[in-house]
Specification:
By secondary structure, this protein is an alpha+beta fold. It has two domains: about 300 residues, 2-methylcitrate dehydratase PrpD; about 120 residues, 2-methylcitrate dehydratase PrpD (60s Ribosomal Protein L30, Chain: A), CATH 3.30.1330. It is built from 21 helices and six strands. The strands form two sheets. It has a four-stranded mixed β-sheet. It is globular.
Length: about 450
């Protein structure tokens, strides 16, 4: 039996800026800009403050630790993983690799480690890529099974991604990196029920995944003995979570089919699977020219319609419910245009609620993933809008992403100087200093608790 964790370890330990393809390095820079930028834009969401309170109660302040972004106090690295990941996840506009949001796991963890332990900045991009590649390899192979079983990809594969990234940042050799990946397989988990119930647990899952992955790397560095077949054995990640054998030939994809290049970004503050339905609804709205349909049918792939919370029709009490609901996202877009945080937190809009009652979600295997067909019955007949998208449509370059971040930032009151600092930091990599990132977050205004979304 092949030992995939060892093969991942060999691949990760060999990653350097010099060995990475230029397009992968550039994509990692874009991921960093999106992660930090959306964290700035989410400063007024309530999840990071809740996580900070919990972290400080557990770990207290630590002047030798890392900074709680948007707050300024310092605590443990693990505490920063939890609190800062909640900030990165605040708007739900984080990056997406398949069904996993690895940026919310990896970037806060790597930032805290570099700040607290002064690791060389030239390891940041290779470490970030290591995380996307290790996590993305397994997500692509297993998520079609683990998601219907109720496990969230961000946490199921994010722990392994974090272990790989931390190992590369710490400079562990191939053997110890493979051990970290194997150990991380025992620390995975995270169920999807919070999406069904519209509650907040999913906001904090990435930080727990990051801390668990970091723990796996530290255990491996300390000499912990790991299960060699943690990913593919009889009671492994694949068999336990996915009820399947790990596909053959996965290791051969490393360094050839770059998961980092599959990472996409979100133009709207809704679930990744709702980006295309919103885009489709915006195009249909133009055709409707102000008319409200008598009935709506939204056709989407079963993987997406079956995802937890996607079929919810309300009543809604939190943005955790509305951003997942296909009917809500389509209805609010048809009525008001591109969804904003204001639209997504208006839970008592009677017009939206009434249109949802006339909206039917149709599971259609002929519709590809990341695509949607909306049929609207009107007084003059049925209008049909089809939107076929691929990851390439959401794989923005730095210039496009910068414009989007700044547009959102202007709406949220983020000083443009904060984005200037972030872009300068990304531009100068691997030169520069992580203090440039901290300085960008120090420019944030104090959040308005009365406007914070739930």
């Amino acid at each position: 039996m092949r030992n995939l964790s060892a093969e991942i370890g060999t691949f990760v330990a060999g990653l350097t800026l010099a060995t990475l393809p230029p397009e992968v390095v550039e994509k990692a820079r874009v991921c960093l800009l999106n992660g930090y930028g959306m964290a700035l834009n989410g400063y007024n969401t309530p999840y990071a403050p809740v996580a900070r309170q919990a972290v400080l109660a557990i770990d207290g302040e630590n002047p030798r630790g890392a900074t709680l972004l948007g707050d300024g106090r310092r605590t443990t690295i693990g505490g920063c993983c939890l609190a800062n990941s909640a900030l990165f996840h605040g708007r739900a506009q984080e990056d997406t690799c398949g069904a996993a949001h690895f940026g919310t796991v990896l970037i806060p963890m790597l930032t805290a480690l570099i700040e607290a332990r002064r690791f060389p900045l030239d390891r940041l991009v290779p470490a970030l890529v290591a995380g996307y590649e290790a996590g993305g390899l397994l997500e692509a192979a297993l998520a079609a099974k683990t998601t219907p079983n109720g496990f969230r990809s961000t946490t199921t594969y994010g722990v392994i991604a974090a272990a790989a990234a931390a190992s590369r940042l710490m400079g562990l050799d191939a053997s110890r990196t493979g051990a970290a990946v194997a150990i991380a397989a025992s620390f995975t988990g995270g169920v999807l029920q919070s999406f069904v119930d519209g509650t907040d647990e999913w906001r904090y899952q990435p930080g727990i995944a990051a801390a668990n992955g970091l723990a796996a790397a530290e255990l491996a560095r300390a000499g912990a003995v790991s299960a060699p077949f943690a990913l593919e054995g009889k009671a492994s990640l694949a068999s336990s979570f996915a009820d399947m054998a790990l596909p053959d030939g996965l290791a051969a994809k490393l360094g050839r089919e770059w998961a980092t290049l599959r990472v996409t970004f979100k133009p709207y503050p809704v679930c990744a699977f709702n980006q295309t339905p919103v885009t489709c609804a915006l195009a249909l709205r133009e055709k409707l020219n102000g008319e409200t349909p008598k009935a709506i049918r939204v056709r989407m792939n079963p993987y997406e319609t079956g995802y937890a919370g996607m079929d919810a029709t309300g009543p809604f009490h939190s943005i955790s419910g509305t951003l997942m609901s296909i009917p809500f996202c389509v209805a609010t877009t048809l009525l008001y245009g591109a969804p904003s945080m204001h639209h997504m937190t208006n839970y008592d809009d009677r017009s939206v609620a009434e249109l949802i009652t006339r909206t039917t979600l149709v599971t259609d295997p002929s519709v590809p993933v990341l695509s949607a067909i909306i049929e609207a019955d009107t007084a003059k007949g049925t209008l049909i809008q089809e939107q076929r998208m691929t990851p390439a449509d959401y794989a923005y370059d730095r210039a496009t992403l910068s414009a989007m971040l700044r547009r959102i930032g202007a709406q949220e009151g983020v000083p443009m100087a904060a984005f200037d600092r972030l872009e300068a930091f990304v531009d100068r990599l691997p030169a520069g200093d992580i203090s440039e990132v901290l300085a960008a977050f120090a420019l944030l205004p104090q959040p308005n608790s009365e406007q914070a979304v739930r």
